[in-house]
Specification:
Chain A: Its EC number is 3.6.3.-. Chain A: Pfam families: ABC_tran (PF00005). Chain A: Keywords: ATP-binding, Hydrolase, Nucleotide-binding, Transport. Chain A: It is an enzyme of class 3 (hydrolase). The complex is a heterodimer of chains A (about 260) and B (about 280). Chain A is α/β, with parallel strands linked by helices and about 260 residues long. Chain A is about 30% helix and about 25% strand. Chain A has a domain at about 15-95 and about 170-250: Rossmann fold, CATH 3.40.50.300. Chain A is built from eight helices and nine strands. In chain A, the strands form two sheets. Chain A has a six-stranded mixed beta sheet, sandwiched between helices. In chain A, helix 2 packs across helix 3 and helix 2 (about 100-110) packs parallel to helix 4. Chain B has about 280 residues and is an all-alpha fold. Chain B is built from 13 helices and no strands. In chain B, helix 3 packs antiparallel against helix 4 (about 60-85) and helix 3 (about 40-60) packs parallel to helix 5. Chain B is globular. The interface of A and B includes residues 94, 117, 120 and 145 of A.
């Protein structure tokens, strides 16, 4: 396979997905997805549970193998794109009781792929970690145990860890899922700031955020229902959730 | 009176063996409890019984057989877990029983009187020889070394394996390595508490240390100390009451854990009431 050598097109794409299908055993989680994410974009991915949002994210990360189709991240295969992608997982996937401090977590983002025997974090690593913590606004918590953090603080710490990778592309899986409203606001304003220097792809349930924050929108329901500007219309909402947009607006938007 | 006991070679050996056992348990125990690999470790331990039987049958040192088979089981279980096709607990269950069954088969096929295998099943710390000590020392050293030289990576792997693999750390390699280390720890522990009782020594000191220690290194060091304490106390108890040392150590560990757990429970209840 040839990546990023066929002229101008691919160079501007942070992520290029062509006809992607991922199956778990025989059941397709996503089918026939083609999607280009431009460099500098801020893409929000929405869709119902089981719609394949997380699967799409995992395919970009190289954590699941596609049954067919192609993905390239800055012209490289997924899984070979280490140090290009900063990943922010869902909080619920992690053990909050793990004995580690906030700064130590951020430092793990600086580990290099090749093993260095007797590796120790240097003073410089520490200072860098502190910088990232300042950037996400939780510097004063640097020596706290992670078990003492609130949901919002934990999420910010994970963003700082992703930044420690010094990525060109930031992938976030529901960054505001277990976070209070004011932290969510802070996280969104942080993300728009970060978007000035990196591409962002965010899976979210937060429809309000989608309309106000992201630049482009992708709607997943097993396949790619919509990809484009942030103006959702009736037809798309129906294809996504099976009922018109009015209901989404009036009923609890965030919990869908 | 207690001091005069130390004049005996077998008591010295028992104490040294207890220390080695506590070291591997403290280090590996913390990792397997955090990564939820306790049953997998149980599987690896029990499979090694097949190796013990094999050793007797073919006439080589049974502990070498145990090492060989448990490493094989570790790699096998690791491979199947990674492929994720068959549910790994099914495979662990099968390995667990198959290993034991092979052990029984080999022993049954041996000509002459069957050897007494209770020391492998339940441990017999007072019969540890100088040769055993050297053997245990070597494997304890390997375990400590491998964990120390890659400590930063182990920490990242334990906290968030997925993230570690995304930034390019070879987590698959680390997982296999961990399984082999578990197999080696099993071999160190067999003489002290025996195959069947190993899980208690892997979990109890670690769980207590987990309630007390706030960082990973400290948690390991503390569980080594708590493990030693249980081993020494168990040793003494087995001497006084004339019961099997492995059983004494395990019962003490379980009681110790329950005691600390209940203390913590009451403490947090009291704190809640004050608030």
């Amino acid at each position: 396979m040839i990546y990023a050598t066929n002229g101008s097109g691919d160079c501007k794409n942070a992520v290029s997905i062509k006809n992607l299908t991922v199956k778990y055993r025989e059941t397709p989680a996503i089918a026939g997805v083609s999607l280009d994410v431009l460099e500098g974009d801020y893409l929000g991915i929405i869709g119902p549970n089981g719609g394949g949002k997380t699967t799409l994210l995992k395919a970009i990360l190289g954590l699941v193998t596609p049954s067919c189709g192609k993905i390239s991240v800055y012209g490289r295969k997924p899984g070979k794109s280490e140090k290009l992608i900063g990943y922010v997982p869902q909080i619920s996937a992690l053990d909050k009781a793990f004995p580690i401090t906030v700064r130590q977590v951020v430092q793990t983002g600086m580990l290099k792929p090749n093993f260095t025997l007797f590796h120790q974090y240097t003073q410089k690593d520490k200072e860098k970690a502190d910088e990232y913590l300042k950037r996400v606004g939780i510097y004063k918590l640097k020596d706290r145990m992670i078990s003492q953090l609130s949901g919002g603080e934990f999420q910010k710490m994970l963003i700082a860890r992703a930044l420690a990778v010094e990525p060109k592309l930031l992938l976030l899986d529901e960054p505001t899922a277990s976070v209070d409203a004011s932290s969510a606001e802070q996280i969104f304003s942080l993300l728009s700031e970060l978007n000035q220097s990196m591409t962002i792809i965010m899976v979210t349930h937060d429809l309000l955020a989608v309309s106000s924050q992201v630049k482009t929108l992708a709607c997943m329901n097993g396949r790619l229902v919509y990809h484009g500007g942030t103006q959702l219309n009736e037809e798309i909402a129906k294809a996504l959730y099976g009922y018109p947009l009015d209901l989404l607006k009036h009923g609890g938007m965030q919990g869908i | 009176m207690l001091l005069s006991l130390f004049q005996y070679q077998f008591v010295q050996n028992a104490v040294i063996a207890s220390i080695f056992a506590s070291i591997v348990c403290g280090i590996i125990g913390v990792i397997i409890v955090e990564k939820r690999l306790i049953m997998m470790s149980g599987g690896i331990a029990h499979t090694s019984y097949g190796g013990v039987g094999m050793g007797y049958f073919f006439g080589f040192e049974p502990i070498i057989g145990a090492l060989f088979i448990s490493v094989l089981a570790a790699l096998g279980i690791g491979y199947i877990k990674r492929r994720g096709g068959t549910r790994s607990d099914v495979v662990i269950g099968l390995f667990w029983s198959l290993g034991m069954a092979l052990g029984i088969l080999f022993i049954a096929m041996m000509p002459g009187y069957p050897p007494d295998l209770t020391s492998y099943l339940f441990g017999s710390i007072l019969s540890v020889t100088r040769g055993d000590i050297y053997f245990m020392a070597a494997f304890t050293f390997i375990v400590v070394l491998v964990i120390t030289i890659l400590f930063s990576y182990w920490e990242a792997y334990m906290f968030d394996e997925e993230f570690a693999s995304i930034i390019g750390i070879k987590t698959a390699f680390m997982e296999y390595l961990l399984f082999v280390l578990i197999a080696m720890s099993v071999v160190v522990l067999i003489r002290v508490v025996g195959i069947i009782l190993i899980l208690a020594l892997f979990t109890a000191p670690t769980a207590i240390a987990g309630l007390l220690a706030k960082n990973l290194k400290l948690r390991m060091v503390l569980s080594i100390m708590i493990g030693s304490l249980f081993c020494f106390a168990g040793l003494w108890l087995s001497y006084v009451l004339n019961v099997a040392s492995g059983a004494a150590i395990v019962i003490l560990s379980a009681i110790g854990y329950l005691f600390v757990y209940i203390t913590f429970l009451i403490k947090s209840k009291l704190r809640n009431e004050i608030n």
